[in-house]
Design goal:
The protein is of the alpha+beta class. It has 6 helices and 11 strands. It has 2 domains: about 160 residues, 2-Layer Sandwich (Beta-Lactamase), CATH 3.30.450.20; about 110 residues, Beta-Lactamase (2-Layer Sandwich).
Length: about 280
């Protein structure tokens, strides 16, 4: 029910905003004209993909919110707390922990990560969260366990609504996105990539580019029109553009790609979701 209502909400909003995605526009970030053939196909593919990803993000968020509520009664340590964290990992997270008000990990799951109990949580995440104690999703970080993940953090309140600590759960964005996007790409002419607002690539149909910084990695330096579109994507929540991309290592064959993008995210941490295809 949650994901269905999210899909309907996002679909209605994007249908209202489709002109801002470029359906009625002729220009782009580079001043060139885009093909207008089948623009509705790529725009509606983006619409459906955004709804699916945002719905799944909301579902993950709701799981952590529910864990925080259950921990309010169970406490942050002990077997009950451990089982609550285990249920998060069984739902798709790769690690979860309860945290004291001072930022110390109290209970950690799964079992192979329990050695981290008693250590201090990542200070970039904790300092961002503790300022407001509001639900929070981090940008991608390298965990001490060696994984790259985003972390969802929720405050845990006592029955009297006093702050007693937090619960956090880690999620690799590339795996999360791959499970949603890859099946939908089958049989389509599209590619998909997702970036943070700092330009880091969280997901790409070409997985070799995941983790790279779009605007600064040397791999992308030969593609100024791609960099122009990337800057525009970071600055604007939705839009369209085009860029030239070489097909060979000798830079002798290139093609023009059209790109449409929009935004997904949680708690103010936005990801830009882009769908591309070869221009007709």
């Amino acid at each position: 029910m949650m994901r269905r209502s999210t899909f309907l909400f996002v679909s209605i909003v994007l249908m209202i905003l489709l002109p801002s995605l470029g359906l009625a526009a002729e220009g782009n970030a580079t001043g060139e004209k885009l093909s207008t053939d089948s623009n509705d196909d790529i725009a509606f593919f983006l619409l459906q993909l955004q709804a699916e990803i945002q719905g799944s993000l909301n579902d993950r968020d709701a799981l952590v919110a529910d864990a925080a509520e259950r921990l309010s009664a169970a406490g942050l340590e002990g077997e009950k707390a451990r089982k609550i964290l285990q249920s998060l990992n069984a739902s798709g997270f790769i690690g979860a922990a309860t945290i004291s008000p001072q930022g110390k990990k109290l209970t950690v799951e799964p079992s192979q990560f329990r050695a981290a109990e008693g250590t201090i949580v990542n200070q970039t995440i904790w300092s961002s969260f503790i300022k407001s104690k509001d639900p929070f999703m981090s940008q991608i970080i390298r965990l001490v366990e060696g994984n790259d993940a985003v972390t969802l953090v929720y405050p845990v309140l006592s029955p009297a609504d006093n702050f007693t600590g937090a619960v956090c759960a880690n999620m690799p964005p590339n795996e999360f996105l791959e499970a949603i996007i890859a099946p939908k790409l089958e049989g389509t002419p599209f590619d998909v990539w997702v970036i943070q607002k700092d330009g880091r690539i969280l997901y790409d149909s070409n997985s070799d580019e995941e983790g790279l910084m779009l605007l600064s990695d040397p791999l992308f330096k030969p593609y100024p029109t791609l960099l122009d579109v990337g800057r525009k994507m970071i600055a604007e929540r939705s839009g369209m553009g085009s860029y030239n991309f070489f097909l060979d290592e000798e830079y002798t064959q290139n093609e023009t790609k059209e790109v449409y993008w929009t935004t997904v995210g949680l708690h103010g941490n936005d990801w830009r979701l882009a769908v591309t295809r070869a221009a007709e």
